[in-house]
Write a structure and sequence with these properties.
Blueprint (H helix, E strand, L loop, with lengths): L5 E5 L3 H13 L3 E5 L2 H10 L4 E5 L7 H11 L5 E5 L4 H9 L4 E4 L4 H16 L7 E4 L3 E4 L4 E4 L2 E4 L2 H12 L7 H7 L12 H14 L9 E4 L3 E4 L4
Parallel strand pairs: 1-2, 1-3, 3-4, 4-5
Antiparallel strand pairs: 6-7, 7-8, 8-9, 10-11
Bound molecules: calcium ion.
The site of calcium ion (CA) has 5 residues, from loops.
């Protein structure tokens, strides 16, 4: 029998934690939980979880710090943050620490399950695309090892960033819209009405890594009204 998908829920509020356990057991997942940041980190590092649902406000160690430490230990661990506020600041901070996605509290269970499935679908999909991406003479990206070099500097990438680059590289003859990136890279179904801000945040992060001058992109260019295009030649 195929092993069940394992989810770790790190959430200190008892009612929400129990609600989440019920939801994911009902959907056939194997569930483990932690009620504070420290035990959450221990469990996350000790067990092989397919996905971690991580609350931001936690006693002991908050979700941001936990996410940060977990990323250092395992750059590929899928993480979805549960943010208490809808404010940009928390979302941007979570995504820049390497969370794969976020869900704002109070969340709808249906939306949460969709996002969990989308992240799992993406991380389980074997990648048949380029292992190395070269941008002019300036930058190389090693997609297998999530590393690279630009202008003599060593770079580290998240799985999501590399997935975006691989998709843009495979389609570099044309601009790719934000909606297409959400569908193909994030694995969202079409017409969910999801915000495209997530894509822009990741593009900005990539430009800071790949571009000699992020304010004047040479490689990861914006095509007005159409999306983004990766220009692999100078
Ligand atoms: Ca909390």
């Amino acid at each position: 029998m195929q092993r069940k998908t394992r989810i770790l829920i790190v959430e200190d509020e008892v009612a929400i934690r129990h609600g989440l356990i019920d939801v994911f057991l009902y959907h056939g997942y194997e569930v483990d939980t932690a009620a504070d940041g420290k035990s959450g980190l221990e469990k996350a590092l000790g067990g092989s979880f397919d996905l971690i649902l991580l609350d931001v406000m936690l006693p002991g160690m908050d979700g941001f710090e936990l996410c940060n430490r977990l990323r250092v230990a395992d750059p590929e661990q899928p993480i979805i943050m549960l943010t208490a506020k809808s404010g940009d600041e928390e979302i941007i901070r979570g995504l820049s620490l390497g969370a794969d996605d976020y869900v704002t509290k109070p969340f709808s269970v249906a939306q949460l399950v969709l996002r969990v499935k989308a992240v799992l679908r993406r991380t389980n999909a074997g990648s048949e695309t380029a292992h190395f991406i070269r941008l002019g003479d300036y930058c190389t990206v090693d997609c297998l090892n999530l590393s690279g070099q630009a202008g003599g500097e060593t770079l580290a990438f998240t799985r999501r960033e590399v997935d975006m680059l691989q998709y843009l590289s495979a389609n570099s003859a044309r601009p790719v819209s934000r909606e297409e990136l959400l569908t193909k890279v994030w694995g969202y179904a079409k017409n969910l009405g999801l915000e495209t801000r997530t894509v822009d945040i990741h593009i900005a992060k990539l430009r800071r890594k790949l571009e000699p001058d992020p304010s004047q992109p040479r490689f990861l260019v914006t095509i007005r009204g159409a999306g983004y295009r990766l220009q692999t030649d100078d």
